[in-house]
Amino acid sequence: MTSPNQPALLSHEEADALILKVQKQQAAGTFDATDEALIVQLVEGFNDTRGMKRLAFAEILGKVGKPATPALINGLANHENPVVRRACAKTMTLIADSATIPTLVNALLTDEDTVVHGSAVGALAVMGEEAAPVLLDVVASDDSSDTAKGLATWGLSFLGTAGAMHLYNAIDSDNEEVRSAVIGALTTLVQENDDQQALGLLVSGLSDAAAMVRSEAAAALGKLSDPTVVPHLTTVLTDVDTDVRKTAAMAMMKIGSADAITPLEDALVYETDEAIQPVIRLAIAQLQKKQEEENDGWD
Predict the structure, then answer these.
(1) Could you say which DSSP state residue 8 is in?
(2) What is the rounded distance in angstroms from the CA atom of residue 127 to the CA atom of residue 283?
(3) Burial class (CB in 10 A: 0-12, 13-18, 19+), 294
(4) What distance separates the 2 farthest-apart alpha carbons in the chain?
(5) Stretch 119-140: mean pLDDT, rounded?
(6) In this predicted model, what pLDDT tens digit does every residue of 228-251 receive, in sequence order?
(7) Neighbours of 48 (CB within 10 A)
(8) Is-contact 251 236, C-beta < 8 A?
């Protein structure tokens, strides 16, 4: 039953009429952004069973901007329909109002709907610098679920240069989960912005005290396809941790530089773990095959 403070659900015809009316008002510049009741009704439009109509309501509210924030916050925090909560979080992405950050974090940590979690992180990611500390806090907290930490880690990778300084500083965190999460975000900075400071921090991650971080750093360097990092990866082919050695070998194979063949052959001589030996052999074989193909191209 509809509460006194909640608008009645609209029929499809009523929803279509409302969308058309508000779109015309926005086009003409006559929309009244102080009409709180209307904005609440627009948020209730997310109850519509038609995805394209929900998208239309989201676009309308996105154009309304920050005056829509209170209704969206209330919808995300309190609405009984998870579809509405998801749409509220997604619409917050269009507005990028930092006032929504606490509600988005709460949704990530406590909402019962997993899709809401992802939508909340997506909205946080567009906040840039302002969202970086809270995403790092989610990763660091013992109270956060593994799912929440994973999503927060994913969100960090989308902060871009706006969150770079927070990432640079967080690589020195006492929490190894935070350092590991930051590795992924730094990788994105290198790939998309040729961030040399981020690259340097990835290399330094190979000497981190935590094997998990060293392994993440090795995997990250492998994604860059940069032959200049091969000497750095060579240093961890003798790491005490088997996962780090395996990841380093795979990373060198992905980079595809012939310069990696000799250090891999040397590592194979001393590798005693029978689970790692085939990985190194595979890396060597793939690199040799690539080298032969490149040489054949000169015939």
Answers:
(1) P
(2) 41
(3) exposed
(4) 82
(5) 95
(6) 999 999 999 999 999 999 999 999
(7) 24
(8) no
